Amino acid sequence: MKRTIIITDLTRFKEGNPSVCVAGIDRATGECFRPMPYLSSVFCRRLKILPGGILSGDLEFAPNRTEPHVEDCKLDNLTFHGPCSSDEFRAVLAGSCFPSLEEGFEISLPHGEKAIPKDHQVKRSIITLRVSPSDVSIVENTFNPGSIKLNFRDQSGRGYRYFPITDLGFHDYALKHRDQDKLVSLNRWISTQAEVYLRIGLSRNFKNAQGKEGFWLQGNGIYTFPHAAEGVRGYAS
User: Fold this and answer.
1) CATH number of the structural domain 90-225
2) Cα separation values, 228 from 50, 59, 137, 156, 186, Å
3) Quick one: CA dihedral 105, 107, 108, 110, positive or negative?
4) I need a surface site. Which of 18, 50, 167, 172 has the fewest CB within 10 A?
5) Residues 122 and 202 sit within 8 Å (Cβ to Cβ)
């Protein structure tokens, strides 16, 4: 079926992986799609595929998709049409919002928990949250100097700390500005914006070195309005 989506997620994998994960929301239906197999970073750079871009093609949900990754789909005859307007991108994000992370993933999480148990039934693997600009900060990972994490508070008042940032553009930008003074300036700039939208995603099932297994929470997208941070290529201004 021919569909047109607005790209809402362009996420990175670990260093050395040549692929990127692209996801977007159908302009007509509001459904979220994640084309599989993953697109290559070289392909995305060549077509200048970015969040806020317009992508069309024959999109059908994958017959073997499983919860929570119900967005997985097959994509054929891909065409990239360039960026949408900032207003349309904001509208797409606003229309996909949940009031809180726990409501979006339909779970009550213990304080500090960053993984959803693999046996918990989740109906989706990506949600959007609208958060106050003053409740978002990018911080250095004190346990791994040189890397950065996302702190935020959702509309329920619940705070989340040290989320991994998989947003490709924002991660690369923030790493270049990761010394303390520049992070302070970046966070101060974010606080001056009118709105911040976060795309929060779930990893594939993964067991960490400590033996903990589940779907891990991550920051797929960080979008500020009315302006994007200078140097972050995300959407048309």
Assistant:
1) 2.40.50
2) 13, 29, 15, 25, 11
3) negative
4) 18
5) yes
Phi and psi at residue 92, in whole multiples of 5°?
-65, -45
**CA torsion angle for 50, 52, 54, 55 (degrees, to 10)?**
50
pLDDT along the chain (237 residues), means of 10: 94 81 96 93 86 94 94 94 94 97 96 93 96 94 77 96 86 68 86 96 93 94 86 44
Among candidate residues 65, 76, 67, 59, the one with its CA nearest the CA of residue 25: 59
Q: Residue 53: enclosing H or E segment and its boundaries?
A: strand 53-61
On the 0-12 / 13-18 / 19+ scale of CB atoms within 10 A, 66 is exposed
Q: What is the pLDDT of residues 163-199, one digit of tens each?
A: 988 888 777 776 676 666 778 888 999 999 999 999 9
Q: Where, residue-wise, is CATH 2.40.50 in the chain?
A: 2-85, 90-225
| Phi, psi torsion values for 3, nearest 5 degrees | -135, 160
Torsion of the alpha carbons at 172, 205, 58 and 20, rounded to the nearest 10: 20
Q: Which residues contact 16 (CB under 8 A, 6 or more apart)?
A: none
Per-residue CA distances from 117 to 126, 149, 187, 216 (Å): 16, 22, 32, 9
Residue whose structure tokens are 């891990």: 216
